[in-house]
């Protein structure tokens, strides 16, 4: 490939790739849609956490392998970027994409935490991550960390709080304990998303750290047995 062709290739791909600071609605919709489909399948197929954790782990391994191979194979990378480019960020052009971290985070949560706590933490990833990013990009005027705003964190808190509240109502009566548990769930989910400011993929930190935090809270406020 000539230098001119190479430059043309790069510029054409860059036109469809987004920066982290972009609104990137298509990626957010895809994030929520794929996660929602996985959750529906999980609930409709017996809620076998080991099975789904294994499936997610296999997807993660395939994703990491594909990212490594495409980073070393320009033609393959070009093909993938032409198809998946509208869903990807510029930082993922020749590096790791979010998919394997997304699948790995879900897998680890399902492997290591109680089923209900793992499901809540996965819901944080599926819904809170894109919601907090949406509000952060549009309204995030008050920065609290690099690429993180107070407005995005508040949106993330309320999303995680509502997820925890409505999910917990399936197993416990409304009480002060349930409300406290839900508020703490909101705080945990929001904090786990903020950690991605330190160059840690939030697709991994949200389910893993949220599951850990919820497990600790559940020890003191045992809603889930």
How would you describe what is shown here?
The protein is mainly α and 225 residues long. The chain has one domain. Helices cover 73% and strands 2% of the residues. It contains nine helices and two strands. The chain has helices at residues 3-14, 25-44, 49-72, 74-84, 98-112, 115-139, 150-168, 176-194, 202-220, and strands spanning 143-145, 148-149. It has a two-stranded antiparallel ribbon with strand order 1-2. Strand 1 and strand 2 (148-149) form a beta hairpin. It starts with a helix and ends in a 5-residue tail after the last helix.
What is the compact description of this entry?
With 225 residues, the chain is an all-alpha fold.
Biggest β-sheet strands, sense, barrel: 2 strands, antiparallel
General shape:
globular
Number of strands: 2
Number of domains: 1
Structural class: mainly alpha
First-residue to last-residue Cα separation: 61 Å
Q: H/E order of the elements?
A: HHHHHHEEHHH
What count of helical segments does DSSP give? 9
**Low-confidence segments:** 1-9
Gyration radius, in Å: 19 Å
Strand order of the largest sheet: 1-2
Q: Estimate percent helicity.
A: over 70%
Strand percent estimate: under 5%
Overall residue-averaged pLDDT value: 89
């Amino acid at each position: 490939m000539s230098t001119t062709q190479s430059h043309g290739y790069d510029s054409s791909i860059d036109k469809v790739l987004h920066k982290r600071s972009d609104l990137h609605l298509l990626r957010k919709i895809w994030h929520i849609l794929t996660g929602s489909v996985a959750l529906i399948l999980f609930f409709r197929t017996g809620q076998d956490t080991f099975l789904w954790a294994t499936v997610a782990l296999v997807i993660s391994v395939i994703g990491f392998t594909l990212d490594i191979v495409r980073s070393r194979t320009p033609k393959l990378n070009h093909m993938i970027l032409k198809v998946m480019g509208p869903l990807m960020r510029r930082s993922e052009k020749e590096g790791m994409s979010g998919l394997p971290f997304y699948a790995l985070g879900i897998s680890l949560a399902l492997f290591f935490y109680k089923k209900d706590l793992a499901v809540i933490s996965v819901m944080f990833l599926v819904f809170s991550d894109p919601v907090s990013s949406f509000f952060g990009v549009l309204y995030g005027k008050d920065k609290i960390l690099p690429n993180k705003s107070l407005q995005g964190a508040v949106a993330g808190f309320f999303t995680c709080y509502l997820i925890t509240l409505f999910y917990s109502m399936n197993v416990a009566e409304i009480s002060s304990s349930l409300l406290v548990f839900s508020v703490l769930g909101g705080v945990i989910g929001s904090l786990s998303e903020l950690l991605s400011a330190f160059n840690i993929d939030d697709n991994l930190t949200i389910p893993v750290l949220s599951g850990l935090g919820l497990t600790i809270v559940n020890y003191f406020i045992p809603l889930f047995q």
